[in-house]
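Bumping with the actual sequence this time:
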Amino acid sequence: MDSVSLNRFQESLKDWITKITQQHHPIKVTDPQGQDFVVISAEDWEREQETLYILQNQDLMQQIARSMETHGTQRGYQPSSEEIDEILSV
């Protein structure tokens, strides 16, 4: 993550916004008093919130763990040829 002063951030605001929103690169900005804040795109923020929700939800984490286990041992759901054809035709 890049770190810039508030003055430098303000001087190149348009460039930083492009980097943040299109390249998905958050920026840490430091104000003159030495306090930091992070600027992140709304899309990245929402993705991070979803990730935190999943990580904090024990039921979902257990489902993921069981799914990984059955996938690793090839004991999970196996779609039929027709189902695969239907999925691939989309």
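The tokens above came from a reply further down the thread. The chain has two domains: 2-40, 42-75.
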